[in-house]
Write a structure and sequence with these properties.
- The protein has a four-stranded mixed β-sheet.
- With about 180 residues, it is an alpha/beta fold.
- Helix 2 crosses helix 4.
- The protein contains four helices and nine strands, in the order βββαβαβββαββα.
Length: about 180
Amino acid sequence: GASGSTGVASMEGTRPVLVEIQALISPSSFGNPRRMATGVDSNRVPLLMAVLEKRVGLMLQNQDAYIKVAGGVRLDEPAIDLAIAISIASSFRDQPTNPEDIFIGEVGLTGEIRRVSRIEQRVQEAAKLGFKRVICSVNNLAGWTPPTNIEVLGVRTVHEALQIGLQPAKPIGDLY
C-alpha cells in the first residue's frame, strides 16, 4: 500500500518473473535533478519521466528520481516501462497502487501503451501467485482467453493506466 511501489511481470528467457519496482520522487535541492536507477536501464528513467511530463502533465523537471527493482534482479526489456511510469507517478502524487495489480506494457513517446510478447505466460504467472488484476495494452487482449481468477484490463495510454491503477490519496489523519 505504499506509494511508489508497483508489480510487474517480466520475462527471464522463457520464464515469467514477477517483481516489484520501487520509485522515490522528491524535490531536488540542486539545479540539476538526479536520476538514478538500479536494476533497470538508467536511460529509460528520464525518457519515461519526459513522457509523464508531456503526455500526463506531471511536473517532474525539478524532481530527483530514484528507481529500484526489489530483490536485486536486473530487468532489461521494454515491457517494464508501464510499471516504472506508474511507480514514478504514484510516488510523485503520493497515491499508492493496489498491491494486487500487475502492470505490463511498453510506453511509446506519444504516451501509448504498446503490446508485449508472451502476455499469456505473464498473466498466468500473476494469477498463480494471487494477483487480481493485470493492466496491459489493449492490443494484447485479442487472440487468447485469460484465466478466470484474474481480471485483465486493456489501456491505450499511460494516462488511462494511471486513472485505473492509482488509488485515491489517503487523508492525512489515516497515514498511521
